[in-house]
Known about the structure:
binds 4'-deoxy-4'-aminopyridoxal-5'-phosphate; seven-stranded mixed sheet
Amino acid sequence: MSRFFSERYKDLSPYTPGEQPFMKKYVKLNTNESPFPPSPLTVGYAAKAAESLNLYCDPDQRLLRRALSEKYGVGEKNVICGNGSDEILDLCVNAYCGKDKPAVFADVTYGFYRVFAQRSGVPYRTVPLDAELHIDPRDYADCGGTVIIANPNAPTGAALYPEQIEGIIRSNPDNVVIVDEAYVDFGAESCVPLTKLYGNLIVTGTFSKSRSLAGGRLGYGIGAEELIADLDALRCSINPYNVNAMTQAAGIGCLKDDGYYAENCKRIVRTRAVMTDGLRRLGFRVADSLGNFVFAAHKTVPGRTVYEKLKENGVLVRYFGTDRISEYNRITVGSDGQTEALIGALERIL
Ligand code: PMP
C-alpha cells in the first residue's frame, strides 16, 4: 500500500473471492455459481437493453423493483436493488452500524461481513456457532448490535426456521436484523413475509445463485419502507446507477421466466443428494445442506490436501483454511456431469 493510503484503512484486509481461473479449464465448484446458463428470454432482455447503452439506466430501478415486488408480494417501496447483494449488505452495515452499534454475526459465516465492518470503520462481534456448526438463535437475543445472519448459512449450509429468526427480531426491537438469503431457493424458508410485520428486518437476496446471473451482479433488499429509504439515500450518495441497464433488464427477464429457474433449483437439490451420498461413501463427513453447496471434511485426509489434490486433478473447490473449519472444503453443487467428475477425481485421489 502506498504512503498516501488513508490512515483509516490501515487494518483493512480485503475479502478474497474464490478463484476465477483465466487460462485453464477446471470443473469449477468453488464459487457457488449455477451450472446452468441464464434462459434465452433473460439473455434476450439483456441484449435488447444493450441497444440503448448510450443512455443512463433508470436510477430508480422502477421496472425491476416492480417485478420483484410482484414476485415477493411486497410494495414497490419495500424493495431496493444492488450491484450484487454484496452492495446491499454493505449499505446495511453503513446504515445501521456505528460506534455503539457493532455488527454481530457468526464466527463461521460469509467472510464479507467482517470486511464491510472493517472498511466502514465500525466495530463487529462474532458469535461462535455451536459444536455442530449451527447457529443458536438464543445467542442473538437482545444482542446490542446489528445482527447479520446468512440463512442458510455459508459455508455450512445449515438453516434456521423463520420462527427462530422471528424470535431474534422480537428480542432486538432496537436493532436492525439483516437476513442474507443468498441461498434460500435451494430448500430453506424465506423470511420475506416477516418484513411486513417488523420494522427492524431487512432480507437480502441475490440473482447470482438460483437465477444464473452471477456475472450480471444483481441483488436486492426487502424491508419496511423507512429502512429501504435509508438504504436508497446511501445508494444515491454513492452511485444512483449502481445496477446497469442490461442487468436491470436481465433481472426482469429472470423473473418472467421463473419456471426455468425453479426447475434448475430442483435439479440442484436432486444432485446435492447424490453428491452428499457419494462424498459420505468416500469417507467424508458432510453436513446436511440447504444451499447449492456442501461442506465436507474427510475422516483422515486433511482439508488442504483434498483441495490441492482436487485442483491437480482439474477440480476447483473452496478451501478456507481458517479456525474451526480447516478440515473442510466447500463444494458447489454443479451439474450431474460435474458431480461425476468430482466423485471420480476423489476416488482416484483417495
Ligand atoms: N451472501 C452470501 C452468504 C454469499 O455467499 C454471497 C456470494 N458470495 C453473497 C451474499 C453475495 O452474492 P452477490 O453479491 O453475488 O449477490
